[in-house]
Amino acid sequence: MKYGFKLVCALGFVAVAGMSTSVADGHFDNAIKARKAVMTLYAWNLGQLGAMAKGEIEYNAEAAEIAAENIRILATMNNGAVWPQGSDSTALPGKTRAKVEAWTTYPESAEISKTLATAAIAMSEAAGTGLEGVRANIGAIGGACKECHTKFRESE
Ligand code: HEC
C-alpha cells in the first residue's frame, strides 16, 4: 500500500469528474469489499502469530513463517485501487468505516502503511527462527494496525 493512496488520488479526480449518482448506486461496493478482504487476511494471519506469542497455541516455526510471509506480502502489495477517492464514511455512511481523513491528510495513511511494511519484513525474517522472534516483532505490526485504525477508521 506504499503508493496506494497516491494512486487513488489520481484515479479519484477522474472518478469525481464523471460522478453523478453512481456512488449511491453502489459504484464503490467492490472496492470496499476488496479492501475489507485485505484487512480480514491481515487479521487472520496476525491472529495466528498473536496466539503463538501469547502461548494460546504452540509455537510452530513453519506456521509462524507462513503467517508472517502472508502479512509481508499483503503489506507490500500495491492495493491502491481499492481506496478510490470518495469511498469514505462521510460519503457512504454505513458502507465503510474508512474516514475521509485517510484521503484529506494524505500521505499520512501511506506513511503508516510503510511502517507496517517495514515491521512485516522484519517479522518475516524472524518468525521462523523461534518464538522470541515472533514476540520481538509483533508489537510493531500491531502498533501500525492500531495507529491507522485510530486515525482513519470509524469505531463500530
Ligand atoms: C493504512 C491504514 C491501515 C492499516 C495500516 C491497517 N488498517 Fe485495517 N482498516 C483500515 C481502514 C480504513 C479500515 C476500514 C475499511 C472499510 O470499512 O472500508 C480497516 C478495517 C479493518 C478491519 C475490518 C474489516 C471489515 O471487514 O470491515 C480489520 C479486521 C482490520 N482493518 C485489521 C487490520 C490489521 C490486523 C492490520 C495490521 C496488520 C490493519 N488492519 C492495518 C486501515 C488500516
From TrEMBL:
PTM entry text: Binds 1 heme group per subunit.
Signal peptide: 1-24
InterPro entries in the cross-refs: Cyt_c/b562, Cyt_c_II, Cyt_c_prime
A GO MF term: heme binding
Annotated keywords: Electron transport, Heme, Iron, Metal-binding, Signal, Transport
Keyword Heme: yes
Binding site residues for heme c: C145, C148, H149
Gene Ontology biological process terms, A to Z: electron transport chain
Gene Ontology CC: periplasmic space
Database matches in Pfam families: Cytochrom_C_2
Keyword Cell wall biogenesis/degradation: no
Name this protein carries in UniProt: High-potential cytochrome c
Organism of this sequence: Roseibium album
Protein encoded by which gene: cycF
